[in-house]
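User: Predict the complex with NGO.
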Amino acid sequence: MRRSRLFCSLLLVAATGLSTAGAQSAAADRGSPSARHAKPIALDQVIPAPASVKPGKDPYTIGGRTQIRVPGASGEVRRVAGYLADLLRPSTGYPLPVTGKDGRDGIVLRLGGKDTKALGAEGYRLTSTRHAVTITAARPAGLFHGVQTLRQLLPPSVEKRSKQHSPWKVAGGTISDTPRYGYRGGMIDVSRHFFTVDQLKRYIDQLALYKYNKLHLHLTDDQGWRLQINSWPRLASYGGSTQVGGGPGGYYTKAQYREILRYAASRYMEVIPEIDTPGHTQAALASYAKLNCNNIAPPIYTGVEVGFSSLCVPKKVTYEFLDDVFREVAALTPGPYLHIGGDEAHSTSHADYVTFMNKVQPLVTKYKKKVIGWHQLTAVTPAKGAAVQYWGYDKTPAKEREQVAAAARKGAGLILSPADRSYLDMKYTKDTKLGKAWAGYVEVQRSYDWDPATYLKGAPQKSIMGVEAPIWTETLSTNQHLDYMTFPRMPGIAELGWSPRSTHDWNTYKHRLASQAPRWEAMGFDYYRSPQVPWRK
Ligand code: NGO
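Assistant: Here is the predicted structure with NGO placed in the model:
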């Protein structure tokens, strides 16, 4: 009997892939003497690395009588407090009531007040003493990011959804933290494979853990149109009806899209919708014959080639179509940006591309949105206030890089997502089963070890808006696939976007990264066990 139970739990360990590190933290969770005396996690062990850390003396311990205080707070601060309580209650087993009453003890979320101005729109200060952990910020987004830091200062088992027996200590001291860049994006391609609203929420939560603040949705491509458009209903109903490999695909109704936006906003993340044009448009061309120059609708596409489709540049209906789509997308989307793609228009001539983009950019600005385009957009003059997203790699010709840098010198904003660094769909090594390798293999160190400030020669500092980590999904169709390619690279891109350059150091980062693994395990996220990272055995 005993034996079979042992066998069962061994099987369970094998099935859940619980590593020795996980097993150790499980032992710690049982409150072994070593765990009770375990040192709390040092304040500088967080990812992304905080801007400034001053260690203090005694740690704060969350206990059965701890309250979460939001003195005199607005609804929004209460919501952040509620989010924190929902995170902490299951694993601590404590009631952690949220109260509006002021006090010097407990977990305190405080908005505004003197010397918070310097914390800006997203910064926060976290002070931990024997009596309280206080997170202060000028804006609710700062409190939210401070909560993510607090999470990482607690033992990994805090992420489990059942009661654990850790000592819930937060090291004493003060963190003052503001981001290096205002744009820290994650992108997910929902066209090649469709991902449900719940899958997107899961991805949003993973990004939020590392203080990302933009979610770029690649909503349309050759293999699927994923958003309901009332004036052109077949885009979604037919154009969204399949995906790579011929599976059933899917699309978001407007209500579902709003739900994604609402969820992202609750994580202080702005959604940037992308309607890719003039290439990557087979799903649209297949849905409406009149969008084709020859008036014949091609079949819907379920393969993985790129660069074969193009909207019909000379036809008037092309612009009526995009006007309708942009109007509806702009009306649904509160954020300032609309991404119009513009990459790999290999079956559009250069002259046509120029004509097209010069006609299409004003359709975006007409609906009071700013344009984002992949960096090929610099073949024309980007609209006022536009941003270009650089996705080149080490083999991108100098001329092409210079064209992008020149646009940046003339005022275009720059989002950096170099494919051989920040593309989460690139294989780690030749042995990686998932992903692509057109930009080379991207191991964890390569992904982390670059500087957005100097990456594109000739681009002025003030043009650099930040970084983005795209995950393209030609080969990825499940949460496990996404997890495996996302972790451990996504936290590194977050750090490039958030942390001051002075904190950048692979040799210390790799240890901080290793300490994240028990958290991922506690949350049930798979990850690539890179040999470059000293995972705890
Ligand atoms: C390229 C291409 C996408 C592919 C991706 C795969 C851009 C901007 N266009 O990136 O269509 O899915 O590579 O890595």
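The pocket of NGO is lined by residues 306, 343-344, 374, 391, 423, 425, 436, 472, 474 (CB under 6 Å).
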